[in-house]
Structure formats: C-alpha cells, structure tokens
Amino acid sequence: MASQHPNIRNAEGAPLAPGQPARPAQRSRRSWLRALPPLARPVARTMPWAALLSGCLAGTVYLEIAARLAGTSQPLGQGNLRLAFLPAIAALAFVPRAPFRPLTQTTPVPGWTAPAGHVLLSAPILGLTCWMQLRIIASTIPPHVLARPPAVYPLIAQLIGWCAVAVAAAAWVDRSRYADLGGAVAAPVSFAVIALAWYAPVISGFLTEPPATVSRVTISWYVVAAAASALACAAMRDQWRRTAVTRR
Amino acid sequence: MAAAAPRDDDRPGVTLTRAPRLRTVLGLSRAEAQMMARSPLALAGLLVGAVVTWLFIHRLEPLWWDVSWRIGGGQLVLGMAVLVAAQLAAGRPRRDGLADLYASCPATVATRTLAHLVGLAGALPYGLLLIGGVTAAVQVRGAIGTPDATVLAGGLLLVIAAGAAGVALGARFPHPLAGVVGALALFLSSGTTHLASGAVNWLVPWEMVQDQLGQLPGPLTGYPPGRAHALELAGLAAVAGIAALAVTVRQARALGGLAVAGIVAVAAVCFAGAVQLRPIPAAALNQLASEIADPASAQACATASQVRYCLYPAFGPLLPSLEAPVNRVLAQLPTQPGQPLTIRQVVTLSVPDSAFTHGLPDREVSRWNAQVQQAAGNAIAAPPSAIGLPVGAWPAVGGQLADAHFDLALAAAEWAVHLPGTDSFGGSAEVFLPCVPVDQAREAVAIWLAIEATHPSAGELQAGLGSGPNIQGADVGGTIIRTWNYPGTGLGAVAPPGGGTQATAAGYLLAKAMTSLPAQKVSRVLASAWGRWLNWRTTDAQLAAALGLPMPSASSGVTAPSGKTTAAGPPNGPQSPVCAT
How far is residue B556's CA from residue B566's CA, in Å, rounded to a whole number? Predict the structure, then answer.
C-alpha cells in the first residue's frame, strides 16, 4: 500500500461508501503553489498539441486557399476569417480535458491545474493563428485602396468570446457523462452558441455588427468571455465524482 | 465452417463457428445502422437541417425547382452530423485502446469497416424525413411546379457520401477532432462558393447561395445539373468507402480489387465534374431570354373585371390569390376606369452571371442580356397601366402574404385613381425616386380603398408612420414631407404601375379617419364627385370637409433621406417630384 503524501490529510482514512462523493485532498496553498513549476513539463507534454495545431492549421490553410482563389479582385473580409477560425475553436474544445480526475483530485495540486495549464498553453497558439489569418486577409486587399478597413478590435473580442465559450463548453462536458467524447460534444455546442449569437434577432443586436455598434460589440463579447470563463472555472473546480458505483 | 477443439475427457469440445462473411457483415451492419438511427448527433443534424431548410425557403415563393435544391442545404447539415457520428463510430476501437480486443473477435477490421459503411443506411431515414417534412410544408404553402427527384436523390447521396467520408476518417484518424474538422471542411467548401464563379460552384458538395433558381419562371435544363451532381456525389461516396476499406484491408487481392474500384469511382467523379462544367444548352437560354423579354409568348392570360392577369404556365394556382384583393378594390369604385389594367409576372434575372453563360459565345450572351434588360422586370418602372409581379417574390402564407395582398390592392387602387401618372419619377439612372402625392385627396382615397379591400391590422398600418428617430420624410421642393411606409414596403412582391408613389403620412392619416366612417357613406361621397377626387389639385382638406371629418395633422420633426432629423427647410438631399398629372 502506498504511503500517504504528507500534504494530504485524510483524517478518517475510511473507504468511501458507494455513491459518496470523492473526498478532495486538503492542501495548503503554499505547498501546491510550490509544486507548480515541476508540473509545467508534464502539463506541456500531456497537452493535445496535435489536435490544437491541426485545427489551427486547417483553418489557416483554408483561408490561404480561399485567398489564392479570390485574388485581389475579390478581397477576403472578416467574415472569411471568422469561418477560418472555426476549426481552431473546434480544436480548443478538445484542450481542457482532465482524464483520471478521481486520481488527480487526490494529488497535492488541485485537479484543475492540468486543464487550466493546457488552456493557458493554447492561448499563444490561438493568438498566432489569429495574427496569421489577419495577415492573409490583409494580403488580399489591393494596394492604394482609400477605403478604411473595418476595425480589428471587435473581431478580436469576438474571437476571444468564442474561445471562452468553447473552453466553458468543454469544461462542462468534461464533468458530464459524455466526458469521454469531450470536444466532439463541446465543439458542436460551441458552434450552436456562435450561430445563436449570430442569427438570433435579440442577441445579434448586441453581438453582431451591424446592427450593433463597434464598441457595443466589443464590450458585449468581452462580457460573454468573462461570463464563459467564470463558468469554465466553476466547472474545472467542481469536485463531484461522476464515476458510477454499482452496488452488488 | 465449424471446428471441434479436442478435450481431455473425450467429450465433445467447444465448437468454434466462423460465420459466413456476408452474414457477419449483414449482422454488424444492422447493428451499426440501428446505432446510427439512434444517434443523438444524427437527430440533432436532422433538426438543424430542417431549420436551415426552413430559413432558406420560408420567405420565398415555394417553387419546386428552387426548393428541391434548397433541401440539399438541409441535407448538407445532416451530412455534417452523420460524418461526425460515423467518424466517432469507426474510430472508437482505436480511440478507446480496444483495437487488440476487437482483433480477437471473429470479424476482421475490414469486415467491421464494411459494416460501418453499410450501416450508413441508418442515416437514410433522417434524410427521407427531411425531404418528407419539407415536402409537406411546401405543399401546404401552395407549391408551384413539381419536385425534381434527381436533385432530391442527390441530397440523400450527399448524406451517404458525408457518412462514408466520416468512416474513412475514423478508420485512419480516431481522434474526434478529425470528424469535427471534416464536417467543417464540408461546410466551408459549400458555404464559401461566393469566392468561386461560374459552373465551378456546382462541383462543391452542395452549392447553397450563389444561384438564381428562385427567380426562374420554370425549370431550366442544366441549371442545376442535377443528374451529373448526383453521379459526382455517388462517386465521392464510393471513393470515401474505398479509402476506408483500403486502410483496413490486408489481402493483396482485395487491395487490387479496391484499386480497380477506386479508379472507376474517380473516373465517375471526373466525368460528372466535366458534365457539370458543360455550358447550359444555348437553346434553353434562348428560350428563357425570349420568355423574359416577351412574356406574352409564354404566359397564359385570363381577364376578369377589366383586369388581365398574365402568369407563367406553372403559376396558375396563384391566380385566386391575386384576384381577391384586386376585385375587392374594383368593387368599391363608383366608376370603372377607362383603360384596362394588366397584372403580369416579370422576371428580375441577372443574365451576366457566369453560372448561366459560361462557355457560350460572348455575342449570344450580349444579345440575351440586351433582350432581358428591355424586359418589364428590369425596367426602372412598370408602365402606368400594368402591375408587375416579380417571379419568386410572392409570399406563400402568413403575415407577408397579407402584406403582399395590401401591396397589390394599393397598387390597383393607385391605378384606379390615376396615380402616379406618367413621367412622374425623378432622380437619376442610379437613384429612383418615386413621386410624392403631396396634399392630394386621391392618395387618401387609394389608401382607403386598399384598407377596405384587405383589412390589415391597425397596428401594422400605424407602424408605417414610424416613431422617434424612425420617422421618415421626403424632400419635395425644399420641404420635408413626412412619409408613410405601407405594409409590404420593401417586400418586393409587387411592382406598382409607373413605379408607384411615396405615400405620405397625411394621406394615410386621412384614410385612417375615413375608415372610422361607414363605408357606404364614404362611397356615396366619392361617387358624388368621382372626377373631382381624381383631380390632383383636390386637396386632403377638401375631401375631409366633404366627409365631415376634421383634417388630421402629421407632426413635423421628420428624418430626411440623408438621415438628418430636420423640420421643413432648405433641401439637403435628392428631391422627389410631386405626382402631378
């Protein structure tokens, strides 16, 4: 039998009754913060790089092909970038995954550390993808065009909002009975939310430009992102054990 | 084949039975088909596909040559869901680390892959349900024409092809992201056809937005190329299925067979693509241009109550819906107008569209374009004694149909009171500005006739006045006249005679006050001096006085066409002419 970690105080030591929630390890904040640096490597190693990079590259390649097809005669717009960013959103839905949660809940660091670390690691990749895609659509605008291009900051706010929605959906699915499918459920859910924000008459008045103004769109999407992040945090910190225990 | 394993105690051993391959495939296929049919993803795809199809068709006239193709948009969404479901099913053993366990089963990987492919039949009920549901909805809304079975079958083939692609993806890439990205690729290829042009659009799995099917007066040969597209999708389904099997088959002989089948499938796809890229037959386009430029050569006309209705052959069922509001307006007239009214369907088609004209001589295209440009549908305004009905714009049911009825009744009433007259529109070739019947009693009479004929809701009529910053106005000779947007404004279902007028708030308010009086009393007053009321110099105040009504006032503070809120003052935008004849 393995010896108990000194940071884990399991006073009773009695086995869990069937159906009883898993008892989380009690940790001191200073000790688990000390454990974070050594965790960076395994978190980076368990990060679903292939899925994330595939999604980001798929959208970027699509946009590059579309740009070559369109040429400068038909410049690409922010709408094309939004479409091209969808594969990255789909990939992001596979990132916040916490396998073996019943086990990780008993370790010295909180169970949400790994998925949160994965989300943090994916942020620069998504930022880079967005930057590359913006460069691609900018390359299709012919030179010496006097018309001012549309502002980018509402688009960035929108993409951040989409990412937050995808992370929240993935975190919630990860705490459901469909956790094994993870992003396969979270991605369509995220797309449904995005479509709703785009087409629902009342909501689109705040989240789509036009009819909403640029500043209103920006503020609304940051509010959405904040709310979705809060939901994602709540789901990641959730410690209820979903594993079914069959009584014989 | 059965084999008995030897036992130590000389009793009969355990019998290992290797079921025939066909029976195994059929059994597994049945199980996979049942799982597909019960898949929540496929069900969600059906629901979203139905919503997408409805969004495509609910605002438009239910023309079967258009709706048949629009159903394919819904099938595309269903296909995306089936693709994800099939990829999840095919990739499950490897994704869950159970490949070794499955390998110990009697059925080989290739057998299971084949079963997954045959099990896609479980998605067919969803595709058929979508077709059946949309068909029922379209028939209830008064469908025009007949469904195109080839195009509908093409939609089903799209679902199967998407599912086969999902199986192929799952056999090679078990991660669920592969299915989601595959579905997105399917969507993006069909959703961004505006980046391509011409017949190339038909090559994507399902073109959704870049066509003019809804403006055609009837089916056009080769537009869309339904049979060739169905063949292309069947070929793609076969290619995907062969790719899925090629990943899992180990025997050299089977691989050879698959290679041959793959070559045949690719050849079929290439052949279908070449057929789709062929130009539309010149004879068909020639006939279409003639039907548009000279509608009389193709339309069937019927005359009732001095009104001549001319419709394209498939649109006969529309006639009662047109006659009702017009007849009710005519029945209220004290004197029938001297010249007959023609209500004719017009086509607002853009011929310089490479999807129509690719591969055809420029000279022919220019000739057709010139023909169509001269047609009534593309003229800046309909003749004074004709009302145009753009093909594809007449709503089927609901509030929009009621608005279209009011729109048609108002157009007939304006014709009856000689509005807007001739040469009464202003602006330039780019900007069409209808004339404004400023302080003319005949406008109020026309609006009253239309209200009495169709009885639209009071709220909708009142909403046309706008409120706050939405109050609109027209600049007439430097004075901003408050305008009224009647129900159906912007619907585009009716092209009124002479280009129509810009209704004024004063005219509507007087007509509204007239509706508070008994209809017989108003009719009596109108009949007593009908010629006077038709005179453009007779004012609203004179009509109100004759009816014993106080003259309602339209408040000032209106929004000029330029968007600035102004009171009456100097001109700050394009000026509208007065309807004066």
Answer: 8
Kindly identify which residue of chain A lies nearest to residue B188, measuring between CA atoms: A83
Please list, residue by residue across A1-30, b when 16 or more beta carbons sit within 10 angstroms of its beta carbon and e when fewer do.
eeeeeebeeeeeeeeeeeeeebeebebeee
DSSP H or E run through B450? helix B441-454
H-run or E-run covering B149 = helix B149-172
Contact (CB<8Å) A83/B192: yes
ipTM score assigned to the predicted complex = 0.71
Mutate to test the interface with B, among A56, A73, A191, A204 (most CBs of B within 10 A): A191
Q: What is the pLDDT of residue A138?
A: 86
pLDDT at residue A5 is higher than 50: no
- State the Cα–Cα distance between residues B132 and A6, nearest whole angstrom: 66
CB A86 within 8 A of CB A191: yes
For residue A79, what is the nearest residue in chain B, using CA coordinates?
B192
DSSP B318: G
Sign of CA dihedral B298, B299, B301, B306: negative
Measured between beta carbons, the chain A residues lying within 8 angstroms of B198 are none
| pLDDT value at B5 more than 50 | no
- Amino acid identity at A240: W
Residue type, position B321, single letter:
S
- Over residues B535-544, the pLDDT tens digits come to 888 998 999 9
Give the residue from chain B lying closest to A94, CA to CA: B177
Contact A188 B176 (CB under 8 A): no
Least confident of A16-25, B339-348, B429-438, B541-550: A16-25
Lowest mean pLDDT among B186-190, B201-205, B413-417, B565-569: B565-569
Decide which of B574 and B493 is more confident: B493
Alpha-carbon gap, residue A118 to A183, rounded angstroms: 14
Are B184 and A86 in contact (CB < 8 Å)?
Answer: yes
- The answer to whether B184 contacts A54, with C-beta atoms less than 8 Å apart, is no
CA-CA-CA-CA dihedral for B101, B102, B104, B105, to nearest 10: 140
Cis peptide before B420 (omega within 30 of 0): yes
B505 and B554 in contact (C-beta within 8 Å)? yes
Residues 6+ apart with CB under 8 A from A17: none
> What are the chain B neighbours of A55 within 8 Å (beta carbons)?
177, 181
Indicate if the pLDDT at residue B565 is higher than 50: no
Select the more confidently predicted residue: B384 or B105. B105
Flag whether residue B396 sits within 8 Å of chain A, measured between CB atoms: no
Please say whether the beta carbons of A111 and A239 come within 8 A: yes
The span from the CA of B128 to the CA of B150, in Å, is: 14
The reported pTM is 0.81
DSSP state for residue B108 in the 8-state scheme: -
- CA-CA distance, B570 to A67, in Å (whole number)? 48
Q: What angle in degrees, to the nearest 10, is found between the helix axes of B362-373 and B282-293? A: 20
Handedness of CA A112, A115, A119, A125 (dihedral sign): positive
Question: Among B313-322, B367-376, B503-512, where is mean pLDDT lowest?
Answer: B367-376
CA dihedral (B294, B300, B301, B304) in degrees, to 10, reads -160
pLDDT of residue B309: 93
pLDDT in tens, B245-260: 998 888 888 899 999 9
Q: Quick check: B143 pLDDT over 80?
A: yes
